[in-house]
Amino acid sequence: MGGARLSSLSRQLGEGVKRLRGRESVLAVIVLLALIYLTVPPLFVMLWKSFVSGISLGLHFSLGGYRSTMQNGLGITVIQTLEFALGSTVVTLAVGSVIAWSTVRTDAAMRWLGYVVAFIGFAVPGLVNIIGWIILFGNGNGVGDTWLRHFLGFHLALNIETMFGMIMMEGLLNVPVVFFLLIGPLRSFNAAFEEAALIHGGKGVTVLRKVTLPLLKPVILSAVILIAIRTIQGFEVPVLLGVPAGASIFTEEIYNSIHGSLIPNYSIASAFGVVLVVGLVILLILETRFTQGTRRFEVISGRGNVDRTIRLGRFRWLPTALNMLLLVFFLLPCLYVVLASFQKRIGASFRSSSFTLSNYTTLLHTSGFVTAIRDTIEVALGAAVATALLTLLASWVSVRGRGPLSKVVNFMANIPLVIPGIVMGFGFLLFYLYSPVPLFGTLLAIGIAFVSMFVPYGIRYVRPALMGISGELEEAARVSGASGMQVIFKIVLPLVKSSVTGTSLYVFFTSFRELAMASILVTAATPLLSTMLLDQLVNGDLNVVSALGALIFVVSALVGLLAFRFIGFQRVAPAAATVGDTP
């Protein structure tokens, strides 16, 4: 009798688990459909439009868009984009690797300053930073040039609106990415191999070439291609500096094809977008091939791990000087924008009579400003909540799911990583423009596009946290009768609350200053603060630009502090910067 009861109970539990598994499969399908909606339609419509001329989405295919890109200098665009990407990658890798190495492996003075520089680099809005440098050294006769001429007695005519200036600007803005990519491998690096090589007669350069670099080869190669991809995806530097510099960069060409005339040329913009995405996919494939077989370079560390701190001697202050220069690069233009926002005239003296609050009064009465604040907060909050929820569900499905469906979910969630924000924004623009769903020109359309862009980054916050939690807790809850949703929100969510909160904060403060995607999707009825800042800069009203830039800087810095409080230094880079890494 007892055996029969146990057998019956076992069957009931088995049937209950099967029902729950069935519900989880339904959840996985729902999540997959949501991810497909966020990725496939905009890319498909853009690809279709690249073969269709005119305004409509007809069936009369042609190569007119691609021919026009060739006639408009596609070759020059490719060459200058590669020049921009390669130059910026060299600058980023050189500076970022030196800072990471000196912070972890040496006795450099004030080593903690490397973390401060990396944090500020992520928290400072790139848009405001670039605008600050434009005001200071934009055309060879900026405010900074005037200061230098006064102190030096001669005119240096520094001008960042050149290809060299673009390369340096983009390269230095990406330094925190390389820092966080290298800081983990360098910290876990077992210096016993270097010690052994030195004991056996190896010289410093030989040990570096034959021991250190091969062990770091996978992460260095990955960092090189990652930075190249990020640079090619870059928008603010090409648009703000590339136009006056006469440079032709892919993202700039897409923007100009849409906003350069009264009638946007969607076919040319689509053709540029398709070529750009294909190029980035090729780079991603190369990155995957280069990093294959990385297990040959894995190091198993334990108690015997040797901590070999390199003594710099009289050079121990050089890394500190480099960090201080980077602090100046990140903070000086933003702080000057804040200062200029209280001046009656850009470049005025520092007398008390030169300061005023009239710039903020003008900004407050600027058409669309109040609407822009409301829209920006609504879009940022909506994108933060939706991204956190979707990434929680997608991460749980990909980690706990069984079968190919979980892998497909993880794959679809990572696709937007290799798609530039302006390309994805343009895809959504076309999709909602030709879709029967009346979302074109609405805040909801902008919010959906933001969620699409930030889902891969949210995955990188939540998924590792889920992988570190045993599934036995969830199994016990199922046996006790909990449903799938109860397991997720009552068991899983409390355990990964910090990661989910970090995702929300990161998405909020990044959405608050997002420009690439927003510049394509906003309309006169749905302005955002970032696009309003760009419009005011184009109009040449630097007083309003400085006030609005100061507002964006202060809000981004405050929210950034909260985000880093939850995310932490070690987890910033995988989420904020990783491209093409599918965990």
By DSSP, the count of extended strands is: 0
Assigned CATH superfamily of the largest domain: MetI-like
CATH topology of the largest domain: MetI-like fold
Beta percentage is under 5%
How would a textbook summarize the main sheet?
Answer: none
- Summed over residues and divided by their number, the pLDDT gives a mean of 79
Could you list the spans in which at least 5 consecutive residues all have pLDDT below 50? Answer: 294-304, 569-583
Could you give the distance between the termini? 50 Å
Q: Which outline best applies?
A: globular
- In total, the number of domains comes to 2
Order of helices and strands: HHHHHHHHHHHHHHHHHHHHHHHHHH
Helix content: over 70%
CATH architecture descriptor text of the largest domain: Orthogonal Bundle
Query: Using only CA atoms, what is the Rg?
Result: 26 Å
The helix/strand class is: mainly alpha
